[in-house]
Amino acid sequence: MWNAARRGLKALSRDAGVVPSPNIWYHPGVYEIENRAQDAGDEIWRVLAEEADWTGRDVADVGCGDGFHLPRFAAGAKSVVGVEPHEPLVRRARQRTQELTTVRTLSGSAERLPLPDASVDLVHARTAYFFGPGCDPGLREADRVLRPGGKLVIVDLDATAGPYGRWMRADLPHYDPAAVEKFFHRQGFRCRRVDTRWRFACRADLEAVLKIEFSPAVAAAAIKEVLRDNGSAADGYTMPVGYRVLVREKPTGIVLLDHSSSSSSSEVVSPRMP
Ligand SMILES: C[S@@+](CC[C@H](N)C(=O)[O-])C[C@H]1O[C@@H](n2cnc3c(N)ncnc32)[C@H](O)[C@@H]1O
User: Are 219 and 213 in contact (CB under 8 A)?
Assistant: First the structure.
């Protein structure tokens, strides 16, 4: 996260919309450990299933990285497509899912999804730094590829939930969680906060992951705090991490814009109405 912010502008100039993720781009092995450690109690998956059940549906995972979440969706979905801009990760995702006949991974970005209109029921994006204030082009693309009634679900770290959120804010003092939430609220998302735990088998894994997520000083303080809170660490090392699950449904009706006044009000008309 810290590194992503630091190097962000450079890559943005190369490919508008693509936000570098040095954690997974440069340390995919450690990121694999991180993904396995995350959501040890399956809390995010439980909330996802409640909000947007994908059983028998077509799913797009945007910014899928090396495809860690694709097999899990594939277990119940009709089809799954991962979309990822970083070519080495596209190749890793394809390798991971080569045995899964209902899964494809395509090169592309949230702002230019390589998918037809109205072709999926769920667009999922996890720890998707590219979905933040100003991401309107990506939100429009998600709406384009969703069928009416389909859902866009963005799963992100909650910078207001400590201790992880506190470490994030220490590295990103200008990050304004309230402004981010306001942006998504205005865009019509509802937000569910989810408390999870990350679980590491050993101290080396814990340290490696925190070192790719934070600046050296913050990582050192974070490691110290987790070691202190885990005592004998008989069951490995765990720490609480909060997430925000943002959900927006594509209307099933036709949206009529009200141009009769300067207001931006609109109404949704059911297609079943005569
Ligand atoms: C922190 S990683 C998370 C990967 C994956 N979602 C996961 O949970 O394992 C963020 C991913 O978003 C990708 N990304 C960055 N900018 C993007 C954009 N504009 N559209 C789609 N993906 C993007 C990065 O290449 C990276 O793979």
Answer: yes
Query: Which residue CA neighbors atom 11 of ligand 1 most closely?
Result: 63
**Strand ranges inside 120-189, DSSP E:** 120-126, 146-157
pLDDT digit string, tens, across residues 50-106 = 999 999 999 999 999 999 999 999 999 999 999 999 999 999 999 999 999 999 999
Candidate of 1, 2, 3, 21 to mutate for ligand 1, largest count of ligand atoms within 8 Å of Cβ:
21
Residue 115 has pLDDT above 90, yes or no: yes
State if residue 243 touches ligand 1 by the CB under 6 angstroms criterion. Answer: no
pLDDT tier for residue 164 given thresholds of 50, 70 and 90? very high
Q: What is the per-residue pLDDT across 208-266, written as a single tens digit (0 to 9) for each? A: 999 999 999 999 999 999 999 998 777 789 999 999 999 999 998 765 655 554 433 33
Dist CA 213 CA 31 (whole Å) = 10
Does the beta carbon of 82 sit less than 6 angstroms from any atom of ligand 1? no
Q: Which CATH number fits domain 2-269: 1.10.443.10, 3.40.50.150, 3.40.50.300, 3.20.20.70?
A: 3.40.50.150
d(CA 110, CA 107): 10
Rounded distance from Cα 67 to ligand 1 centre (Å): 10
- State how far the Cα of 50 lies from the Cα of 233, in Å rounded to an integer: 33
Distance 126 CA to ligand 1 centre (A): 8
Residue spans per domain, the chain: 2-269
User: Mean pLDDT, to the nearest integer, of 34-38?
Assistant: 98
